[in-house]
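Interim report, section 4.2 (structural modelling).
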Amino acid sequence: MTEEKPVVYVVDDDPSVRKALERSLSSAGHEAKTFASAAEFLDFTCPDTPGCLILDIKMPGLNGLELQDRLAEKNFTFPIIFMTGHGTVPASVKAFKAGAMDFLQKPFKDRELLNAVSTGIEKHRRQRKEHKKMEILRARLDTLTPREREVFELVVSGMLNKQVAFDLEITERTIKAHRARVMEKMGAQSLQELVRFAERLGIRSSTA
Amino acid sequence: MTEEKPVVYVVDDDPSVRKALERSLSSAGHEAKTFASAAEFLDFTCPDTPGCLILDIKMPGLNGLELQDRLAEKNFTFPIIFMTGHGTVPASVKAFKAGAMDFLQKPFKDRELLNAVSTGIEKHRRQRKEHKKMEILRARLDTLTPREREVFELVVSGMLNKQVAFDLEITERTIKAHRARVMEKMGAQSLQELVRFAERLGIRSSTA
DNA sequence: CTCCCTATTGTACCAAAGTACAATATCTTT
DNA sequence: AAAGATATTGTACTTTGGTACAATAGGGAG
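Predicted structure of the assembly:
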């Protein structure tokens, strides 16, 4: 469980390209999984491991750019590297504006691709790490009752217990009770940590 | 002082292009300032107002991409929009990977350019706003003595005064003194706010 | 050498937060 | 109707943090 094995997904309609890519990726130590069409890839469910995606621009059916759009709608998070034989400037512009990570023109050197792949995987690793932390925080946040959530927001905003109490028109004693539960449910060891959690969760007190 | 007037900088060696761009930018309500070469622009010091930069790719002397690199070295923060007559895919790729915001191929519609410009200016406005806040915070941080800085880091990490005291091998009373000065110098109205400041400043306790 | 900044510490007190015992009321679900 | 979750509050006590009065000591600038 030190490092999860990354997977490189390749979508290209040309079997010989798939084979060639698979070979160079494998020889560089990457696990490759290939798809012959956008549809085929869309049917596939990627495992929850780091990786990146290599897309051919020109393909029958959905092309690479269209696939990119479809994936974006599904919160697909793998970095995307495009490949193209006779790519156009507008295509590359669209790709990058939609968040592509690289855009390689054939013929390209193995090294170029492998560099892009490594960069993509590293980026995805970091993303995943961050995302997992956020998942945990959001899950904890979801366990708060509406009242606790209110107290949470007001407390991290910097208000004193008595001020929060006044705001919610209840006693300070009750704030302490909620506050203690918030700390416990959020898994915060200190007020400082609770504030950091709130920051990451994008919590802003509605009043301030 | 409601809104600062943005400026659009244009660098293109072709006088007729400069004139044309100036006209369409003006008619859209933007203030334009034009330059005939990369060198000319590098000699210029942009005022501290929002704006964006429009660069021609192909120019005698330094071309647009090279200018982009030079500017990056100087922490130039204005969003860059490229224009090109016969742009190549590698050029657009390089531009985007170096942080370009858009890449327009001539002939382009006025609307395309103006949309890109508006987006760029808005982005820069947000950037500047954030940057100014950070400037203030960094300036305050710089007023802290080394000792106060240490206490700052340990306190926001979540340690109790007594723990910080133990760590620094001084008394809790002294921690309180430093802590009070940190709050005052940083302009924090609460511990919660102090933690948020530390987060933005990227302060991590070296021990934790 | 004096002034200022920095770092340190003391005492005493007050305010704020946290906790250990609780109890009561409402609402939903089973 | 009983169980469980939620929201509320009480008393009493401890711990932690903040402040108002300080004083002392070292180092650097003028």
